């Protein structure tokens, strides 16, 4: 369903003499429909950049991103806009993912409005989504700062669901959250995924979380994918030295 | 709505802000109702240089105009110039700030212009322009706007730059929202408080600059502003060796001081409200 | 690398400033020849033959095509020749430099004092935030900062020059006083400096004060201040070694920009106190349409401001290791 | 032998919305050479508790109770006396090394400050000591690193500097507030090992909500919820057999234990629930839980738990 | 102690350049500063032209040839003698360097054909055309410079060595501070006219003259027009004395004589009747001015023509004139309309300084149904607009109206008045050597202006000198202004005992005797038979002569 070929993103700095940071360097992989690919790697290795490049939130330097056979990187602005709702992203910081000046209700209604859903239908849909992600209707009239991080992440999920996406990039969706809340959110994502047959790219630096969430795992190091394979293969039989280092010290409590 | 109410609430608790707003409203009301408040037409001439008495609370100026009425009418010009300029400059600054923050390439060029404007000595340039443009209120406004927008642009832009990378803006884009939609519906409301602060600060700056230019004799000599009153007072040969300064120089000077202070108070309070780190220890 | 870009930017700004300086006076109405012949003091009209005017124009090179005037102008600037002042009938550089020292003295002293004082008071205010002292300081600094400099100057003249008669009211020195020692001379200059400098200091102090207060409030909320406190440092040591330096960082640039404002502000103070500085000169040059002088005064003021910015940038580099080694 | 004894500590923050009871009646003892872990979800009052031991909480708070350190009540010491204890006898490692180091001062100087202050060494001697310290926390090339600025070091090295700083004056008690927050998994692991090593002969209050880290390093664990302690037990017993339903829920939320979340959301610290604070989210809640506030129950094996199930 | 005995006089001033003849700023005060160091052949006191470096002179060939005889023992500050060669050198040198910006002061040199020095003490100037004002504008204006210093100087405007201020005058420059605008002069003990009354003269820039004067920082300051309020304060103060003089300055409304409707003389007259000049003087100038001569020239000028129509405020006449022209208020809004139906309305341009006068005029014109809007601008801009002819009415002022040459372009700086007869009369008077005839021509010019009204003059401000008489009390205003007409009280004559003054010993200065002798020769009917003041002079002479006899001096 999603195929990434030779994707690279270099950041340049300096005006006279350019210097490049190879944040993502010639990355290739594919994800099947309904599959979850976990992406692990140390901080700054390029995970976020990769996720954002795939969705064209930043323009990649080179490569192809084929989504159902369409090269996303070739779409023009208008085509991209109509195409976008099919792919969504969930960010690490749930509080920053919502406009602080909009009520929860408005935030969730926003994608519906953008999709030109009939005005009269919106209210009902919003209610439905709110319940779907396990919030209570009273939350609809609050502002993000009046809710906890876990609740905000639910709102983000509700909003993503409103668009009926096929593919979601979850960029460390729970790393800002508490263990107990993390469990709630991760479970919710799993449930929704199963129900809606979503395809997921799940980014995290927490091996245990990725292990729980993913079908396959890709290990990223210095902008490149250094190892990729089924969950258990990676955990039991790591090949790359970095993966070994990651897996070796895991504490079993 | 509650967000707004909340900051309103904080504002009310902020004694400095409320004081400023109070003073400012007094002056705005004075300006609006000047014809009802002033005992005379400020251009009507009586005996020149009459000291204060029951007829003329603050006496008359060098050509016999009632100083008290002049003072009241002057609040009109001073505030009019200040607010008109601030509105236009903040408007231009906000728009260019918004777009230059959002579109990098456009922003790059705008910022070079802004840098240039900020690197050039502002007041000397204004003085020159003021000397050679026919002195009218509108020319003054044009000059002030010309030099007022870049600061706002820069401040708004840097705010937009940080807002632009917020995940919620990315989410909007992912939902298929267009640039204008994002700018108008998501970024603008978030920078609006900053725009208000800029507006207030610009108004303060303009009042000072207008007074300064008028004082140097570069304002419109036929208009009645506090700076112009001070200019005529300063030109008066015995201003320092007689007592006339008490009723001719002091009142317009103090009016400028108080209005600026009020604006500073309001701006200061607004900034405290906007900066949550400062808010905790509000006075 | 970083320095190179900075320096390129500075050169560019200087170049644009020079071009504006050249173009601006020429776009203004009024011929310098008229100003040369008209006499504002006595207003005596001088009706001149066109050929005499021509002669004078060519004397000043005003008859050449604009492009040639421009290249000449650039060449001269490189040679440090700012031209010949039409009104003052002397080399522009000489006219300017003679006044420049007074402006630099006035602005320099005031800047030094208001910066140190403003920063100190700002730090104190932030340290005592929310307390009575902070509020008192805040309100008084904001109030005094709201005085237009010329108004405060006039009040000072009345109060200290006339009513109390303890300070001189004009000039930079006592004219033709014969000093018995350099100390005497210094005393005299200082004596004349006090009122204008205090005016500038008082009316400008709100800037650094507020900046420092805000910056300090920010810094005081940082984790490393808690760390410092956790180490058992005294409050004074925390303020001195940890808070002030960090709080100063973001405001150095702003203060440099304000240095430019100070020079501008000096125009008013110099006018009221008849202080023989460049601000007053600029104003005179404008009213006499003295192109070369105007251009020169502008250029010098611009250069000073750019230099101030440059110094600030360098100070910033020196102060902030994140930039220096980044 | 108790090094630190906290008795009925209350720390309240008056705010616009009401009084935030961040710490509400905490009793806690730290023995010599004990490493006590303090765990609990975000916002339950862990940091406030740690900071109030050091008296680093701003003056507008309402603090009540006793914090007895070696027979002296820290809360009633003068500012000066307290300052001598801070950094000297009790040291603190703050969460997030990136922001806890002053960016414009060389790291060596930041460590030396403490040494000079508490051990009265001169500049040169202090520097020598700093280099030793850096070597102790295994910073490569300490002679060079001592003159680095924080931003020139990696996150892991910064954390090491923080630890060196805390150890610098050879304190008896270290309060470490989530020292591994914001660090990479691999780095985190090394730091935890290091901490374990260097605190071998010291006492430590280790604040975290990273259960894995706590399990690795601590002797005993205290579980905190909504401003009060719910359970206190040895590390082994709590991970193998948590008594309080909250402790159990917390452990079950771990991915490796099946990601079973506690339902509901954490309570506000302004209007804490009547009765047992955890009852709205508790699967075992009884009638009494709704009405009465449970007291800490001491069990025979040295464990203590605040739950009617064990009353 | 000796220093304290020094008599020091401090005067309000400012920087007007290095006081060499080629580096002072091209302004009256600059010339004055220079004139303290450099002498001219003739000079003026409050009444007449007096001999200076030249003790006598004669004109021949219908005023194109002038022979001047120099004083005998005049020396430069450096001790060198001043000779006729120096004078010849000066005139030729300046003429050769006519591109210098100070040329305007010396532009009369254009009239010079050549100059000769037949001997040490005699100079003969031959002119191309007769120059009636030779004695004031030529001999009385051009400073004589030492040949031995200037002969090698190629660009005099850039020559600022100390030698550049070696003159022959009563003062030597001791110090000059450009930045602060301070001048310090020392008396020239060897001056050929005697020792000046003060040992040191200081000119300094003060922020506020009234304040500086009352604080004793300066001993003299001058005031102008509406500054009369300050003058009155000092008048009431026994420590100060005040003298008043003519400013030779006029404020005028300038009409565009090329644009409808201001090109209609009756329209201009109507406006003149509508303006109340008395009210302007009372209200704006506080009485510090006199109603202007409608013929422009100042009443204190010897060329003044009295009795010209003054268009005293009369709304009835004004309205009648306007009605007759067809400007009638048909819609009753108080504003007249053009015959075409549009409102009679235009801008009233003014320089910044005269906005208040303009505003009052605006009010006065409104009373006769003419609507104007005051538009104030810098003098520079206004002048530029006036030169372009882009205006209807403007208020502007200028000085120098002691001199009939000013009448060349009556609505200067505008140039919209064209009258061939007027122009030819002007040209004729320029070269008319017969005083009475010339005066008649000038009268005709003034009459034409007063009737045609290309400008309507408003007021002539008064000027005052306020001084501390203990320091120096010889202040006076020079006849028609110093040199070419600078209305400044600082004539170098004030530093000398005047005619009839007793010196410190109670004796009459011997120089007065010289003066009497000169007057006697001056009264020679051949020299100036038609002098209007002849009788006055005779009277004065009588009085002094009698006094001298009483004192036993003659
Ligand atoms: N806009 C940018 N400009 C320049 N460099 C960038 C930019 N964004 C990211 N980088 C650099 O690209 C590299 C990869 O960054 P990225 O955010 O993708 O890492 P990450 O793996 O997501 O890290 P984390 O776990 O901390 O989120 C980093 O070295 C970063 O500094
Ligand atoms: N200065 C303050 N004013 C008001 N409330 C405060 C203040 N400081 C902390 N709080 C509140 O006290 C509670 C406890 O905060 P604390 O920082 O101790 O939590 P924590 O357990 O350390 O959480 P985390 O794991 O996120 O660090 C929180 O609800 C917080 O909002
Ligand atoms: Mg990332
Ligand atoms: Mg915490």
TrEMBL record, chain D:
Location in or out of the cell: Cell membrane
Chief site of localization: membrane
Listed InterPro entries: AAA+_ATPase (IPR003593), ABC_Ni/Peptide_Import (IPR050388), ABC_transporter-like_ATP-bd (IPR003439), Oligopep_ABC_C (IPR013563), P-loop_NTPase (IPR027417)
Molecular function terms from GO: ABC-type nickel transporter activity; ATP binding; ATP hydrolysis activity
Leading EC class: translocase
Name of the protein: Nickel import system ATP-binding protein NikD
EC number: 7.2.2.11
Stretches assigned to the ABC transporter domain: 6-251
Catalysed reaction equations from the record: Ni(2+)(out) + ATP + H2O = Ni(2+)(in) + ADP + phosphate + H(+)
Keyword check for ATP-binding: yes
Any one of the GO BP annotations: peptide transport
Superkingdom of the organism of origin: Archaea
Pfam families for this protein: ABC_tran (PF00005), oligo_HPY (PF08352)
Organism: Candidatus Syntropharchaeum caldarium
Keywords, sorted A to Z: ATP-binding, Cell membrane, Ion transport, Membrane, Nucleotide-binding, Translocase, Transport
Membrane-spanning parts: none
SUPFAM superfamilies: P-loop containing nucleoside triphosphate hydrolases
Membrane topology: Peripheral membrane protein
Cellular component GO terms held in the UniProt record: plasma membrane
Subunit text: The complex is composed of two ATP-binding proteins (NikD and NikE), two transmembrane proteins (NikB and NikC) and a solute-binding protein (NikA).
